[in-house]
Amino acid sequence: MSALKRVRCTGPGISRRRQGRGFTYVHPNGQRVHDDETLVRIRSLAIPPAWQDVWICPNERGHLQAVGTDGAGRKQYLYHDAWRARRDRQKFDRVLRLARRLPSMRKACDRDIASRGLSRERALAGAIRLLDLGFFRIGSEAYTEENGSFGLATLRRSHVRVSGNEVRFDFAAKGGQRRIQAIQDPALARLTGSLLRRKGGGPELLAFRDGKTWRDVRSEDINAYLKDLAEEEISAKDFRTWHATVLTAVLLASQEEALTSVTSRKRVVSTVVKEVAEALGNTPAVCRASYIDPRVIERFLNGETIDLPRGRDLADDRARAAVESAVLDLLDPEGAQRAA
Question: Is residue 18 in some structural domain?
Answer without folding.
Answer: yes
